[in-house]
Amino acid sequence: MIKQVGDTPILPLHRASCHCGAVVLELTLPDGLVSPRRCDCSLCRRKGAIVASVPLAGLRVVQGAELLTLYQFNTRTARHYFCSRCGIHTHHQRRSSPDQYGFNVGCLDGVNPFDLGEVPTSDGVNHPADR
Fold it and tell me: Which segments constitute the CENP-V/GFA domain (predicted)?
């Protein structure tokens, strides 16, 4: 678990937002960032985001829910959300763990994901649900 990224402490209740600020999330992160990762599936390798996960109850949209656009592909199980104004991916309901949201670490207030250093990559090309 990661309790600080660069100079920014990861708060137990941490805010996140898209680039334009229209969409604001509140994340419950009592253990900080747990297992931040990249994914090499066709969508994630294009968006390039580092994600971490929270239980569904650990993410709340506090502003801009009406501006979130849903994108689904392939099995249409995962639910990827992005801001319809600035296009930033904020979070997604995970395919491999539908009881969790993956959130874009780069959207966390005060966090520069490049300060994480090396981040492991999950094998999304050979997704566990496809086996």
Answer: 14-130
